[in-house]
Design goal:
This protein is an alpha+beta fold. The protein is built from two helices and six strands, in the order βββαβαββ.
Length: 128
């Protein structure tokens, strides 16, 4: 079982003691992404929709670095500081994913790093 650390400058760099993703065989575990702009490491400007899109773009960049894409996501976890944004997550997600959709969880949390309002992590299965 080979473990490979995935790293790309197309997504925000880790802001703690973790890797952007870890690949074990054909499974890739993506760390949580918040709406940081990779070049500035600051939260994206704009409304909640802008944050959600930035998070999906960051996840897509890490997935690409691992040799996959969002179509390879089998499990997606969504963390929101305000669950009233859940319908908006669904709306934006429909632009990034096609059926069959991944398994998913949405969890309300008190706070997220850097004052973000949304964070997502994912598990990819390559070649499925």
């Amino acid at each position: 079982m080979a473990k490979e650390i995935i790293k790309t400058d197309q997504a925000p760099q880790a802001i703690g003691t973790y890797s952007q993703a870890v690949k074990v065989n054909d499974t890739v575990y993506l760390s949580g992404q918040i709406a940081l702009v990779p070049d500035t490491m600051e939260l994206v400007e704009g409304n909640m929709e802008a944050q959600i899109r930035r998070v999906f773009d960051n996840l897509a960049a890490v997935a690409a670095a691992a040799g996959g894409g969002l179509a390879d996501v089998v499990k997606l976890n969504i963390f929101l500081t305000d669950l009233t944004h859940f319908p908006l997550v669904n709306q934006v997600m429909a632009e990034y994913f096609q059926e069959p959709y991944p398994a998913r969880a949405a969890v309300g949390v008190a706070s997220l790093p850097k004052g973000a309002e949304v964070e997502m992590d994912a598990v990819l299965q390559l070649g499925a």
